[in-house]
Write a structure and sequence with these properties.
By secondary structure, this protein is an alpha+beta fold. It is built from 11 helices and 12 strands. The protein folds into 2 domains: 154 residues, Trna Endonuclease, Chain: A, domain 1 (3-Layer(aba) Sandwich); 143 residues, Yope Regulator, Chain: A, CATH 3.30.1460. The strands form 2 sheets. Strands 1, 2, 3, 4, 5, 6 and 7 form a 7-stranded mixed β-sheet that branches.
Length: 313
């Protein structure tokens, strides 16, 4: 068997200029998606070279579905004190909760600084130091690789939240436990869905690869229902175009009926499936609930995701 060699490529071979080459490459949807997949946060571009006083952050973005601000600073060289200071300035200027530093190499003292900041900030602030790599097999195209060197310590931040969580109502605690267990179930089923951290809400959002819509899973203890929906926060054009293809879209779904909700007078709209479940609050019924939600979410992600990738809205 003939085996090819794996070769590491110098970053400057692909991106000669940090601002005009690398930043513009990273700002493309497919490349931000690669970064999103690596760190588990869905990133939606707002602007490149966004102004903070007399400084400019390489990329200003937001987390899909939550709107949390993200600042990304790039360096096609090793970390230095100057860029660490700028990064903090950018984060404070935009009130960013997620800070991402992408570099050629991370020096030990700067890894220690990012680790320290993650350890001593509250659960709202997330800092990442990421080493950018390029690899090639034989004469193949260059392949990018984001290697996370420093990231938030969720365990440490969870400890800091203990006091706050103790004041949660019984319903909120049930919701948190439900989504935590749903995530574990989905992982055991080897789902390809990008599952984010669970919170004590009646909903759980999943990215569909577009900033115009996302999947929302819902446990409604008041109505004793489970719901899975495509939530469109602010795009009447998207809803209208999907509705024009209503018959074709519904024919693709296996055992799920769709309810189309234009929500007259509101910016948002939704397309949803509903399952009545009288014992939804009982732990013994949760595996059945998880199975229904996961199958529905997978179909929504596959069918609607495919439509959104192929169609410009």
């Amino acid at each position: 068997m003939a085996l090819a060699r794996l070769r590491k490529i110098d970053l400057r071979e692909a991106w000669n200029n940090e601002a005009s080459d690398f930043t513009n490459w990273l700002a493309e949807d497919e490349n931000l998606q690669l970064l999103s997949d690596e760190i588990g946060i869905d990133i939606s571009l707002i602007q490149t070279e966004a102004s903070v006083g007399r400084f400019f952050v390489d990329i200003l973005a937001e987390e899909e579905n939550t709107g949390r601000k993200i600042v990304i600073e790039n360096q096609l060289e090793a970390t230095n004190h100057d860029h660490l200071g700028k990064l903090i300035t950018y984060a404070s200027g935009f009130d960013a909760e997620i800070v991402i530093w992408i570099v050629k190499d991370v020096k030990d003292e700067h890894k220690q600084a990012i680790d320290w900041l993650n350890e001593h900030t509250d659960d709202k602030i997330y800092l990442f130091a990421i080493k950018m790599e390029l690899w090639q097999i034989a004469e193949s195209p260059f392949a990018p690789k984001f290697q996370v060197i420093s990231k938030p310590n969720d365990w440490a931040k969870t400890i800091k939240k203990t006091t706050a969580q103790s004041s949660l109502t019984d319903t909120k605690l049930l919701q948190l436990e439900f989504w935590d267990q749903f995530k574990e179930y989905a992982k055991e089923q080897k789902t390809s869905l990008n599952l984010r951290k669970a919170y004590p809400h009646h909903w759980y959002d999943i990215s569909i690869g577009s900033s115009k819509a996302h999947i929302a899973l819902i446990i409604d203890t008041r109505l004793s229902q489970l719901r899975c929906e495509l939530y469109i926060p602010n795009s009447q054009d998207l809803y209208d175009k999907l509705f024009l293809n209503k018959t074709d879209i519904e024919s693709k779904f296996d055992s799920f009926s769709l309810e189309w909700m234009e929500l007259e007078g509101k910016k948002a709209s939704r397309i949803r499936s509903v399952k009545d479940m009288e014992n939804v609050t009982e732990n013994s019924s949760w595996e059945e609930a998880f199975a229904w939600l996961l199958i529905c979410a997978n179909q929504y992600h596959s069918i609607f995701g495919n439509i959104l990738r192929k169609t410009k809205f």
